[in-house]
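Below is a filled-in request sheet from our internal design queue. Each sheet records the structural input a requester submitted and the sequence that came back. We keep these sheets so that new team members can see what a complete request looks like end to end.

REQUESTER: design group, bay 2
PRIORITY: normal
MODE: inverse folding
CHAIN LENGTH: 748
BACKBONE (tokenized):
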């Protein structure tokens, strides 16, 4: 969404120093792997644009008039995406040449291993020259993996990209052309060429994930495949019977549990539709409306620009699920303004990054992970967005508390009245831009399919953008005429939507390897068993040191298991985007929490939330680094500050684990009320403790007590609420009186 994001930012930056559109685009490309596109020119750009537009039109049509059969639809999507990938995304320049060269040689060895196993397995069924052709393609893949600049430039595809493009489109197109023969006539009896195309698909998916997402995800995909192949040689519980390349191709390529599994099914439908809606909505000026509404709501209060950042990020979360894109979009406006009003550049960038991460947990569009969750759990998406409301509210409450206390500590004022727009003026200018969003959300809540909701959201976004032109002759001159999606802007939006889907499609295809291997080998149960065993060992050890049985062994075991899962999410999320992180851990770790009686929905939300937190967790805090690029602050220190600002909401997942009523599971008004009061007090206490200020500075003892009391409130126990809540009220009440006394003294 870089173009539309930048456009919005430029239109909304009148209140502060403005970054050029090119600078914003470069920031997004640098920190958002999914937007690192080549800047193509000439006939190639035209061909890519046409291909992207055709793909977007195909998805709009199928959203409104019905999908193709499941296999064909996924293959059509993959054929377009994998063909575009090797032209649109450049080969990654090596940051550490020796390390990259070593990894590249290992990738090359893997590709040659796949080729060798294929040739050996098909010996006698294929001509000898076919075998040499398989080795040749593997050699080409190995060559492509090398970090050599001569093999591909930044903005111009090299000779090696073209055969990869045709092969990328070809392995899915093959399944479309020969659908009847493969899946009906010869089902269960694949031909030799089917296996060859499957081997090519495996190699291209690994390389595609590597080119779009970096090394981490592709390494996981390769390790999953090697684990499946060499199972008999592994020690202990990790050992299994092993599967050759023939069985893997049947499962991963010719089945629906690998490359074309549930993750690709979701990306090829829900995700694409809503990404396209978000791109077009921002291109039509909806982002400008969000910023103006946020300024109107929060700008007048202490530290107004920072609160505008939090509120506007919440609004943007309704149409965008990218933390980096959100950070750059709103940050181009809010970060300079925060600095001008007294915040440090580091705090300003960290606030924007911490707020923008909430986009992935904010209904109605919560990023690709939410759609995958809906499919994996069998929960209708319209129910899922209702369930997500309370956790999202806690997320933004935590950030707002941190920002408010920091503003009061610095004694910052709100924005002047002349910089705050009037509600009437905002609505008079932008009311037509709200119609698509309102209609889309209404359709979702009325239990219409997400396909239909996205379809009407897209169609109405395009149609409503022309309302200013239609009504202008009738005297409606206040409407934003810049919101019109002219043919050129519409084409750009359709192209951008397609490009934004490339990386996430490649990532989900690679994740399909792990999901497929998990179903073959039982890997998920082995990981879950290891986590449960480790948690039991730690829990029993710690329970021996707890006096008077204040905490049971089972409670300690559960808490340690939650910490282990949270740590796994954060560590994996440091190198992998949220959606792949969620899919991987939900498949291999969520069963562990099921052993403790945790509801499956709560387990998945827990994994989802901690995966999101990784975007502001050093050393790979991409959203924070993007914000630092705007503020000019130190990236690592900004990441640490963003993580600190996120600590309050880091406990939100623990809240709904211990109080599933927050997710409307096992709901009772009594438990819900206890959980809400405990959660609010927990967030306020921890926010005050971390900032070190409420109404007056807090002492070290007060910060320690508030931290411990806040942490204990996570358990949502009535007795803990009474005791810990009493301590929180006592400390904050005393601090409030001190602050009021100092204020009265100054005024007197």
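RETURNED SEQUENCE:
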């Amino acid at each position: 969404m870089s173009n539309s994001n930048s456009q919005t930012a430029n239109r909304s930056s009148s209140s502060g120093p403005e970054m050029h559109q090119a600078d914003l685009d470069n920031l997004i490309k640098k920190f958002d792997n999914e937007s690192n596109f080549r800047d193509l020119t000439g006939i190639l750009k035209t061909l890519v644009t046409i291909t992207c537009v055709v793909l977007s039109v195909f998805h709009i049509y199928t959203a409104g008039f019905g999908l193709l059969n499941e296999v064909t639809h996924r293959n059509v999507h993959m054929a377009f995406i994998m063909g575009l990938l090797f032209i649109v995304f450049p080969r990654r320049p090596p940051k550490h040449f020796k390390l990259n060269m070593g990894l590249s040689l290992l990738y090359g060895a893997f590709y040659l291993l796949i080729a060798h196993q294929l040739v050996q397995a098909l010996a006698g069924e294929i001509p000898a020259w076919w075998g040499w052709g398989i080795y040749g393609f593997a050699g080409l893949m190995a060559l492509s993996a090398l970090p050599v600049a001569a093999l591909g430039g930044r903005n111009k595809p090299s000779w090696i990209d073209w055969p990869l493009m045709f092969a990328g489109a070809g392995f899915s197109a093959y399944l479309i052309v020969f659908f009847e023969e493969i899946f009906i006539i010869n089902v269960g009896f694949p031909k030799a060429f089917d296996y060859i195309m499957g081997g090519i698909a495996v190699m291209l998916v690994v390389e595609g994930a590597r080119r779009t997402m970096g090394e981490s995800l592709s390494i996981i995909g390769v390790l999953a495949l090697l684990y499946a192949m060499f199972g008999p040689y592994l020690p202990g519980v990790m050992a299994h019977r092993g599967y050759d390349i023939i069985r893997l191709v049947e499962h991963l390529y010719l089945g629906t549990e690998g490359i074309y599994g549930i993750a690709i099914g979701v990306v090829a439908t829900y995700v694409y539709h809503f990404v396209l809606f978000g791109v077009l909505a921002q291109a039509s000026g909806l982002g400008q409306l969000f910023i103006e509404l946020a300024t109107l709501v929060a700008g007048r209060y202490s530290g107004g620009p920072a609160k505008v950042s939090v509120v506007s990020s919440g609004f943007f979360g309704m149409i965008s699920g990218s933390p980096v894109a959100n950070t750059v979009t709103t940050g181009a406006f809010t970060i300079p303004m925060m600095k001008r009003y007294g915040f440090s550049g580091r705090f300003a960038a960290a606030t924007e990054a911490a707020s923008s991460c909430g986009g992935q947990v904010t209904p109605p569009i919560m990023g690709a992970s939410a759609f995958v969750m809906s499919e994996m759990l069998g929960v209708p998406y319209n129910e899922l967005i209702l369930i997500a409301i309370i956790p999202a509210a806690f997320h933004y409450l935590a950030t707002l508390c941190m920002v408010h206390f920091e503003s009061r500590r610095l004694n910052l004022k709100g924005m002047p009245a002349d910089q705050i727009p009037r509600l009437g003026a905002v609505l008079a200018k932008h009311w037509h831009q709200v119609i698509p969003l309102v209609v889309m959300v209404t359709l979702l809540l009325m239990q219409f399919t997400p396909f239909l909701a996205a379809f009407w959201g897209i169609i109405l976004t395009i149609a409503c953008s022309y309302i200013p032109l239609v009504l202008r002759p009738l005297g409606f001159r206040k409407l934003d005429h810049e919101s019109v999606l002219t043919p050129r802007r519409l084409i750009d939006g359709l192209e951008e939507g397609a490009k934004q889907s490339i990386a996430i499609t490649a990532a989900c295809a690679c994740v399909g390897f792990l999901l497929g291997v998990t179903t073959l080998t039982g890997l998920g149960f082995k990981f879950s068993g290891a986590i449960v065993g480790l948690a039991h060992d730690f829990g029993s050890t710690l329970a021996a040191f707890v006096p008077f049985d204040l905490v049971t062994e089972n409670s300690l075991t559960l808490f340690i298991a939650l910490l282990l899962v949270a740590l796994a999410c954060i560590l994996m999320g440091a190198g992998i985007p949220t959606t792949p992180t969620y899919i991987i851990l939900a498949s291999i770790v969520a069963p562990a929490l099921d052993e403790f009686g945790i509801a499956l929905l709560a387990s998945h939300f827990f994994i989802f939330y901690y995966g999101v937190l990784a975007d502001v967790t050093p050393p790979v805090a991409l959203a924070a680094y993007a914000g630092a690029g705007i503020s000019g602050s130190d990236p690592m220190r900004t990441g640490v500050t963003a993580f600190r600002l996120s600590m309050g909401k880091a406990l939100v997942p623990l809240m709904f684990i211990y109080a599933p009523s927050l997710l409307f599971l096992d709901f009772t008004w009594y438990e819900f009320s206890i959980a809400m009061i405990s959660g609010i007090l927990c967030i306020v206490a921890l926010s005050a403790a971390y900032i070190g200020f409420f109404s007056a500075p807090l002492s070290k003892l007060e910060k320690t007590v508030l931290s411990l009391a806040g942490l204990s409130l996570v358990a949502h126990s009535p007795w803990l609420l009474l005791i810990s809540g009493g301590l929180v009220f006592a400390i904050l009440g005393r601090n409030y009186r001190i602050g009021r006394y100092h204020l009265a003294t100054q005024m007197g």
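SHEET NOTES:
- The chain is about 70% helix and 0% strand.
- Residues 1-17 have pLDDT under 50 and may be disordered.
FILED BY: M.R.
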